[in-house]
Amino acid sequence: MKIYWIFIVIAIVCALCSDKIDKAVKANKKVKKIVLLLCGVLLVISIISIGKAAFGTKEIGTISGVENEYITIDGVEYVFDIDSKGQSIEDKLLDAIEEADYKIEKMEEDKALKLEELDRKWLAINDEIHKKLNDFVAILAGRDSKTVLSLALENKAVFLYSIMDGYNQSDAFRIRNMADYISRKTKELEDLQASATK
């Protein structure tokens, strides 16, 4: 109950007892002055209280040990919870959302940098393979040379292993080494691709 309602109740009681009050005032001037003073004080307090209720007041209260800021507008209290540091729950939620957005953006930036680094490594290994292969194919027969260059990277090593028997021991050894190298580097490329999807 708002405090000004108490004064209205007092005013009603006074109105109901007006006859008795009137007789007491007429009989005693000192009582008359006290009654007039009391009425004046009640009137001023009532006007101030009603004015606050009409135009809105902002107060701080506590509920369960937590401060709550509320504003009264047209007799309706709008409550805003405040923590011990003076921060409203709404502000805390906004801060939490901003922090979450920042973390998401940071994760996306880190992921983009990671993918960029993986792409750089992948291209470097792929370029190295093709450079060495282009220098190597000179020892192969024309048909084998064209075939190994045209095949997909994952099939090059298998093809080189398959043609070893058609070459002399020295060339076959070099072909095996190249096939082993391509097989090893292809595995590295596959690992990089797998890392990019994690």
- Strand fraction: 5-15%
Helix content: over 70%
The separation of the N and C termini measures 62 Å
SS-derived structural category? mainly alpha
Mean pLDDT: 75
Note the main sheet: 3 strands, antiparallel
Provide the number of structural domains: 3
DSSP summary, beta strand count: 3
Assembly status: single chain
Name the shape in a single word. Answer: rod-shaped
**Helix-strand sequence:** HHHEEEHHHH
Strand arrangement within the widest β-sheet reads: 1-2-3
Helix segment tally: 7
Spans of at least 5 consecutive residues whose pLDDT stays below 50 are 56-71
User: Taking Cα atoms only, what radius of gyration do you get, to the nearest Å?
Assistant: 46 Å
Overview features:
single chain, 3-stranded antiparallel beta sheet, mainly alpha, 3 domains, rod-shaped, 198 residues
What does this protein structure show overall?
- By secondary structure, this protein is mainly alpha-helical.
- The protein has three domains: 55 residues; 30 residues, no CATH class; 103 residues, no CATH class.
- Helix content is 74%, strand content 11%.
- It is built from seven helices and three strands.
- The protein has a three-stranded antiparallel sheet.
- Helix 1 packs antiparallel against helix 3, helix 4 packs antiparallel against helix 7 and helix 6 runs antiparallel to helix 7.
- The chain is rod-shaped and about 140 Å long.
